[in-house]
Sequence to fold (165 residues):
Amino acid sequence: MEEAPVFFVGLLAVLDPPWEDTKSTITEAKRMGARVKMITGDQMAIAKETARQIGMGTNILNSEAIQDTFQLANNAELADGFAEVFPEHKFAVVESLLNGGHKVGMTGDGVNDAPALKRATVGIAVCNATDAARAAADIVLTNPGLSTIITAMVLSRQIFQKMRN
Fold:
């Protein structure tokens, strides 16, 4: 049986760029003392390039760095992020940071983010998130971008200070 020839028809590039305000939001969050990490299902090269574009460190590890509890605890503290992960890995990183005594804010938009959003100290579903992410989150952003998170951080710190006084 003779096979028909195969012809290259085209190439479709897919890009999920960061929000326009992501870099400035990360810069301000770091200035306020937050340690920002990226946890993504994207491939390593894409994750590192995204991290570079948004001003994060490029110490991005793959899901193998999440396999055992001791290794995860160390890597969750030191890494700038994780790539090539599945939903259970996102949950494990959040859980590890919580077990390390950290307060964890998690942003996400998809069904794959829902378990980690639910487990985080504060889960934040971004604009246009899936119903699952919205249901799992504590806060749902209604406008595009992430800068509202900085406003929430400032206001929550002010409220906490007033309560302490």
In short: The radius of gyration is 18 Å. The chain has a mean pLDDT of 92.
